[in-house]
Amino acid sequence: MPRRRRIDFPGAFHHVTNRGIAKRVLMEDREDARYLSSCIARETRRGKMAIHCFSLLPTHFHLLTQTVEASLSESMQRIEGRYGRYFNRKYRRDGPLFRGRFFSKRVDTLTYRRTLLRYIDRNPVQAGLVKNPWDHPFGSAVSYVHGPEPPWLTTSWVKGEVTDANELEGIYESRVCSGSAYIDRFGRRSSDFLSGMVEARMNEA
């Protein structure tokens, strides 16, 4: 069966995810998570993609990306290839690390983009790693709530959403989004509700 062609164009939003081959762990420790973050950061510095939201978990990752030059596949190949080489060297293993090519689903409505942000934020909660999304050290929620944001995280859309939702001025302190405003806007849906919505979209043809 031929591979489904990815729909990509400049400015397109995508939900991107992948996990380890045979359900193996992708990140054994914090050093690994930091290195994967650096691989993502390096690609954003090349000006090929923007990251609005992310969550890195031991067995998989989720990204809400926006492509700049319709080059999502090339960007993800570089990220996963660089991280895979690092991981194999560190743990003296051989062979593929990821279960296959990454999964992506174009995010074609603002409503679904908001739902996806909540879903990605709550993934570590659903996995039993933390109580709240902003307690997870390798996700964007902690940056939006507590700051500071990493320089490679694009925050303009999320901060605009928080401002619009609260109709307040001066909701930010320097670079940091108001934590309570972010929680009110994005932190109140249950993990099960969000999982059902997102997984239904992921399974669409």
From TrEMBL:
GO biological process: DNA transposition
GO terms for MF: DNA binding; transposase activity
Membrane-spanning residues: none
Alphabetized Gene3D superfamilies for the sequence: Transposase IS200-like
SUPFAM superfamilies recorded: Transposase IS200-like (SSF143422)
Domain of life: Bacteria
Span of domain Transposase IS200-like: 9-123
InterPro entries: Transposase_17, Transposase_17_sf
The protein's name in its UniProt record: Transposase IS200 like protein
Source species: Saltatorellus ferox
Organism lineage string: Bacteria, Pseudomonadati, Planctomycetota, Planctomycetia, Planctomycetia incertae sedis
